[in-house]
Amino acid sequence: MRKLFLLLIFAVSTFIAKAQNHGVIKAIILDSVTHQPVQLATVSVLKLSDTSLISYTVTDKNGAFTLHNLKQETSLLLISHVSYQGVRIKIDFKKGETVGLGKIYLSAKMLKEVVVRGERVPVIIKKDTIEFDATAFKTRPNAMVIDLLKKLPGVQINQDGISVNGKPVSKIRVNGKDFFVGNMAIGINNLPAEIIGKVQVYDDRDDDPDHLQPDYKVNKIINLKFKKDILKGLLTSLGGGAGSQGRYAGAGFAAKFTDQLQVSGRFNVDNLSGTTIFSGNYGGFSSANWGNTALSRQTSGDFDITKDISKKLKVHIEYRANDQITDNNTSNKTLRNIGDTLFTTISNNLAHSHTNRQNFHAETEWKPDSGTIVKFQPDMEYDYRTNRSAGTGINFNNFVPLLNTTLSSDNGRNTEFSYSHNFSYYRKLNKKGVSISFGNSIGYHPTNSIDFNDNDLMSYVAGFPSDTLRRSARNINKITSQVLSGNLHYPLSKKFSADVSAIALHELDKGELLTYDQDLKTGLYTIFLQSQSNNLTRNLFGESLNPTLTYNITRDIYLKGGVNILTQQIGNHFNNYTPDLNQNFFYAFPTGEVHVKQFTLGYSESIQQPSINNLQPITIVYDPLHTFIGNPFLKPSYIHNIVGNYQKNDYQSGLNFFINPGIAIETNTIINVQTVNAEGATITSPVNGKGRTTGFLRSQINKQFKKRGKWQVGVGAGLSANTSHNYFIVNGQQGYQNTRQFILSPNMYIDWNNVLTLSPSYRFTYSHTDYPDNTYSTHVAELRADVNLPQHFRWQADYNYRYTPFAPAGFQHNANLLNIVVTRRFLKKDKAELGLMCYDLLNQNVNQTHYVSATTISDSETQILRRYVMLSFTYHFDKFN
To answer: What is the pTM for the complete model shown?
Structure first.
C-alpha cells in the first residue's frame, strides 16, 4: 500500500512538472467607456474541436487574469460578464509560450475579433451564483449527476456530504424546485447527467432574505437545470440482486417532471447492513462502509412531490418510511483507574431490535407580492421500537482476581410521536432596506415505553452480597413547546444598521417513571418501588431581547455589537412529598463580531441549565453497583464562546482554503462526582465544578489543477484538532483531565479521459489523554478505482486498510477491506446492466471503538457484515419531451 501511494505521488509530481512547459495566457479586462477594471469576468479556454472546457478563471479586482499550463493546440478564449458583451479569441499555442493579450475592453459594441451570437459560456459568475454549462464537462455514457458534479471545479463529494469551495451543500434542486430535501443522495445518484444543461451554485438564503448572516455561516444550494429542449420527462430504474450467505437486495426509483410538477418515489429492501449496492442505474457499493455497527435488514421507501399551485404559491411534500431489524453482538473491555486500584470489566452483549419509523415533511411558500414571504413547514414522525438483549460481565482488579460476575437481560418496547411546525412572515417595508419578520413554532412530543430487566449479581468477596433483580419500568413523557419571535432590520444610514429580535417561549416537560419489583410468588410486577420512581415536571418560561448595531466601514469590513437580554422562570416539580424548586434568572450577554474581507471573529455568551433529573433531592439505588444522589443546589453553567473563520477561494489558481478555530470557556460546569469502593460499587452525584475549556480547529484545502490533455488532477487535505481541559473529582481526588485529538486526511482525484478514475485518500487520527494516561491512534488508507473498458464493461474497486497500533490485547490491530464490482451494460442505449460484486473479498471487516472519559478507558468490538458475493441486474428507462 505504501508503494502504491508513493507511485501516485510521483505521478502527480511528474504531471505538475510537465505542466510547467505548457502555454500561458494573461490579459487585463477593462470597461471600454470608463477604462475601469472589470472584476469577476469569466475567462474560459475551450478545446476548438469539441468546445469542451480546458480551463477557466475569473478576473481579480484589477481586471487581470492569468491561465497557466495550457496544452499546445488551437484553442478558443472566451471572455464573458453579465453586464458586457462577450469576447471570443482564437489562439494557437507554441510550447512554453506566454500569450500576453494586453488590455481587452468590454463594451456593447463589437470588436473586430469578436463574434458573439448565442455563444455557449462554460462558466458564468453572477454575484454569489456560479453557473456551469454541463455540456462543457464530458462524462461517461449513462453517467449520473454525481459523476457530473465531481468534475465541476470546487465541488467535493465524500461520505460527509457535498461541499462547494469548502461550504456544505444543504439542498439539491431540480429546475428550481426542492428535490428530496432530507436525502440529497437520492437526486444525484438517480438523475442521468445527460439531461442536465446547467448546474447553478448559490447561497442558501431561504431563511435570510436580508442577507444578515455572515458568508461563512451560509451553506450552498445546487440547482440542476434541464436542457432547454427538455420540457417534461419520466425516469424509472429497477434493480435486484441475490448472493451468498442469503444476501438479497432490491431497489426502484421513478420520477416525473413537468413545468409545474415534480413527483418522485424510491423504495429499497435488503439485508446488507448498510452496504447498499444500487446507485443510480448501475450496480456498485455506495461506500466502503467501515462504520456499519450491526447486522441489519431493512425495507424503506421515500416519496417527494413539488407543485407550483400558482406563480405565487408553491408546495413541497416528503414522506419517508423505514422498517429495520438489527442484530448486534458487542464485546467490551473497560479499565477504570481509582487511586492505586485498576478495575477491569470484560463484558459481552447480544441485542435484537425492530424499529419502524415514518416521517412526514411539508413546506408551503406564498409570495403575494415582491416584498412579502409567508412560509409554513409542518413535520410529523412516528417511531415504534421493540428490543431485547442479554449480557454477561466479569469484574476484577489488580488486587482481587475476581470481584463479581453479572448476568442481565432486558426486553421492552417504545412508542414515540412528534409534531412540530414553523410559521414565518417576512415583509419589506416602504423605507428602503427596512424589514420585519414574525415567527411561530409549536412542538408536541409524547413518548411511552415499558422495559423488563433481569439482573443477577454473583459476588465473590466478603462483605458485598450477591443480588437478584427482577424489575419493570414504565416511562411516560410529554414535551410541549411554543415559541413566538419577531425581528426588525432598520438601516440608520449608509454605514449603520440596527437589528432587534425578541423571543418568548414556553416549554412544559412532564415525565413519569413507575418502577416495580416482581412478586416471585405470582410472577407479576406488582411491588411498587417508591425510591426508583418519580413524577417530574419542568415548566419553563423564557423571554429574550437582542438589539444589535452593525457598522459597515467598507463593503468588505464591518463591526457588529449587541447584547442578549435573557430572563427565565423555571418551576421544577419532583413528586408529591418533595418540595418544588422554583427559580428565576436574569442575564445580559454581550455579543460581538468583526469581519475583515475573508476573516470573521465572533464572541457570544450562553448558559446551560442543569437537567431536572440532576436536581432531584433524592437518592436512587439502581442496583448494588450503581447509586445516584441528586443535587437541588446546582447552578447553571456559564459559557464564553469565541469563534473565528477564514475562507479563501482563488479562481485563478483553483485553490480553495478555509480554517475555522474556536474556543469555549465554561464556568460552573456540571460534573459527576464519583465514589468507588474496593468492590467497584459506584455512587454518583452531580456538582458544579471549577470549569472546563474546550477548543477546536477545522480546516480544509483543495487544489484543482488545470485540465491537461485527457488528464484531470485534484488534491486536497483536511486538518482538524480538538482539545479539552476538564475538571473531575473521584474518591476525593480532584484535578484536570487534558485531552488532545488530531486528525489529518489528505486525498487525491485523478481522471483520465473518463475511462480511469483513481481516488486515493488517507486518514490519520491521534488522541492523547493525560489522566488516565492513554494514547490511541488509527491509520486508514483508501483507494477507489473506476475503470470503463470497451464492450460496455465497468470495473470498480474499493480498498481500505485500517491499522490500530494501540488496540488492547484480544482486539484486532489491522484489517483489509476490499470490494470488487464488475458490470456489463447491454440492450438499447445500454439501459440494462448485469453486475457481479464481492463485498469484503478478504473477509477482514471489523468495527472497533475507543473511548476515554474521566477515569475510564473503554474499547469495544462489534460484529458486522463480512464477505458476500452477489449477482445483480438493473434496468433504467427514461422518456423526455
So the answer is: 0.82
